[in-house]
Amino acid sequence: MTAVLDAGPGTVASHESAAALWRLPGFSFAPMHVSRMKGTANRRSALAAVHRPRMLPEGHITVLGGIPVTTLPRTLFDLAGQIHPARAERAVANVLGKSPAVLPVLHALLEELGEHGRDGVALMRSVLLDRPIGYIAPASGLERRFMRILAEAGEAPLDRQVDVGGHEWIGRVDFVDREARLLVEIDSARFHSSKLDRESDAQRDQAFLAAGWRAVVRISEEQVWHQPREAVAVVRRARRGASAAGSGGEISRSHVPFHHQNGTVGNVAS
Fold it and tell me: Is the pLDDT of residue 97 over 70?
């Protein structure tokens, strides 16, 4: 607040300082950043870097903890013009993972700010191109990591966070290959390691198979973080196996837990 007052009337916290106020992971208040529209008094600040955007309407400003600050969507656009692209995209991903309702606001803001040629618009346009309205953000960093290693390996993307059921809803699964009729679940150590967890997972998998899905494959957190090649290989083998099952072939076995449509619990193999 001191930095905002020091920079003069019409000043708001912005950029990385705003991100810290919004509690985005990886951002801190220092060094401090504030913004004041061009055309206002050219007052220097001894406490913060002062940005002078051409456009800072009232709709882009709110109050957080008593401090005038750029709104969360506007803050993401400001960051995109100042920090490393990968870090900016990660900030967008973190926000959408917790607040999906921000996505349509970002798309609307892209149209608004794109007319003014602001820094960061090109990057945000690219980021939002991969996140159209209706996009479902990964539920966790574990899922984001899994998506990334599949993409880097050249694997076709899987649909994410899909509600699945037969005559009635069974549950939401992490990833789906609709063509192969394959479900892929990413199991965190925290929620899928106990005996009760495993029994619950097995019952759920059987319900999916009874609803007409050809196979359910589970990939562990350990594989996603420390054995990415194996995680990719599991998906490839599972896709081949599920496709073979659909054409009357037989699914072979390996060491990755895998539930077959005939009700047996086996393993996916090459």
Answer: yes
CA distance 148 to 18: 28
User: pLDDT by residue (tens digit) across 150-183?
Assistant: 999 999 999 988 888 867 888 889 999 999 999 9
Spatial CA neighbour of 107 closest among 142, 144, 135, 69: 135
Q: For the chain, which residues make up each domain, given as ranges?
A: 2-129, 141-268
pLDDT of 188 reads 85
CA distances (Å), origin 59, targets 7, 63, 83, 110: 21, 11, 24, 14
What is the C-alpha to C-alpha distance for residues 27 and 122, in angstroms, rounded to an integer?
22
pTM of the model: 0.60
CATH fold for domain 141-268: Endonuclease; Chain A (3.40.960)
The first and second tokens of residue 95, run together, are 């926000």
Q: Mean pLDDT throughout 247-256?
A: 44
| pLDDT tens readout for residues 195-240 | 888 888 999 999 999 988 999 999 998 999 999 999 999 999 999 8
